[in-house]
Amino acid sequence: MKILTVAAVQAKLSDDLDANIEHLSELVRQAHRQGAQVIVLPELFEGHYFCKEERDIYFERAHPVRNHPTIAHFEALARELAVVIPVSFFEKAGTVYYNSVAMIDANGTTLGVYRKSHIPDGPGYEEKFYFRPGNTGFRVWRTRYGKVGVGICWDQWFPEAARAMTLMGAEVLLYPTAIGSEPHDPTLDTKDPWQRVMVGHAVANVIPVVAANRVGDEDGHVFYGSSFIADPRGDLVEVADRHDEAVLVHAFDLAAIERLRAAYGFFRDRRPGLYKVLLTADGVA
Where does the chain cross the membrane (predicted)? Predict the structure, then answer.
């Protein structure tokens, strides 16, 4: 048996960076006390989700990955607790900006950075104003406890990303997230489709999926929580509600999952030579 215990942290966030870091650190400690080895926090947790509107003042929140104070804090916490923590942050890289994750291993070392590949642009989620599309490609890291792939929020809607990370050897897929109400249409509730698409990734790739969302009302933008952990069958083995903070923890036998993936035959029966259409934008050119 090769056991990996993962956690999804669902949190209410203020617009006070120091308070958020202190609060999330305590939730990380709680997850650790419950046995978690890999702990996923919400997307852009340093403050309120600022991308709901286009304001140039918010570029001041970005920081280079080198000597980043939030990353340094969680490096120390990861080292203390011997846990893996993907840290979502607003990255400044020269004259451009990215929505990024720094992957911190259990010894407190940052293994590298993933920059969000798919950038949304719509009412309440105007991220193209702030972020360039990522240039890292999809990333899978060999951590102390297993090989993990990370997508960021909008990435989670794209089956190509999940399949690519699984092909690259990921044993679990992690998705830091910030999603909730749609200000242009109060009747639109995306919670169920949001969960279902990632459940589809779990089933199609025979892999656990962990999604960590924020929760609560941030100046009228209401985040619907519903963080979850799905097993390779697509069952929601742990799920949070829409209103409260939560620390979800679940253990997986990675060796058993590897056998199950082989038995299902999805990767055996793939036909990559037939998939060239996926390299086109419109199915033609």
Answer: none
What CATH number does residue 262 fall under?
A: 3.60.110.10
Catalytic residue among 51, 116, 127, 171: 116
Active-site position among 52, 153, 218, 245? 153
Contact 169, 128 (CB under 8 A): no
Domain count, the chain: 1
**Main-chain dihedrals φ then ψ at residue 189, nearest 5 degrees:** -120, 110
Integer Cα distance of 59 and 25 in angstroms: 25
What's residue 51's pLDDT?
97
- What pTM value is reported for the model? 0.97
Residue 191: active-site member: no
Q: Is 285 part of any domain?
A: no
Q: Is 51 a catalytic residue?
A: no
- Whether the pLDDT of residue 91 is over 80: the answer is yes
pLDDT digits (tens, 9 = 90+) for 143-173: 999 999 999 999 999 999 999 999 999 999 9
Asked if 52 is an active-site residue, the reply is no
Q: How many whole angstroms separate alpha carbon 244 and alpha carbon 116?
A: 27
Q: Which residue out of 43, 46, 127, 171 is catalytically annotated?
A: 43
Q: Which domain holds residue 63?
A: 3-267
Contact of 45 with 88, CB cutoff 8 Å? yes
In a domain, 25, yes or no: yes
Residue 170, classified by CB atoms within 10 Å of its CB into exposed (0-12), middle (13-18) or buried (19+), is buried
> CA nearest 250: which of 11, 39, 10?
39
- 272: in domain: no
Q: Is 274 contained in some domain?
A: no
The DSSP call for residue 84 is B
Is residue 36 within 8 A of residue 7, CB to CB? The reply is yes
